[in-house]
Automatic annotation (TrEMBL):
This is HD domain-containing protein. It comes from the Bacteria. InterPro entries: Cyclic_di-GMP/3'3'-cGAMP_PDE, HD/PDEase_dom, HD_GYP_dom. It comes from Thermolongibacillus altinsuensis. Pfam families: HD_5. Residues 1-113 form the HD-GYP domain. Coiled coil: none annotated. PROSITE patterns: HD_GYP.
Amino acid sequence: MKKHPQFGVEILRNYHVNKHVMNIVLHHHERWDGKGYPYGLKGEEIPEFARILALADSLEAMTGIRPYRSPLSWEEAYDEIKKGKGTQFDPSLTTLFLKWMEEHTIPIHRDSQSILQNIPLIS
């Protein structure tokens, strides 16, 4: 699991993706406190767009359908992201991200069937 950022970069390299985009993918699991991977970068060492992607990726992971657990509600995900402010996530970006979450709500689907019902050709 901890190697998936490197695997992602290898896949992107095959498609000649911009090196800055590959750098974002490579570092999106680094943590503000330096306890992330693959290199243990911390704080401002982590590219800014990788810090933004970390927030978005975490929100999707928490609210998305997984075979091993039910998705968190929007409010539960908000609380989890807030807990990570300054440790897992860049504190300034987290403040902005939480403000965005307060102003937006994305429907949380509890199972794949509810997703399919919202696709016009299938429902």
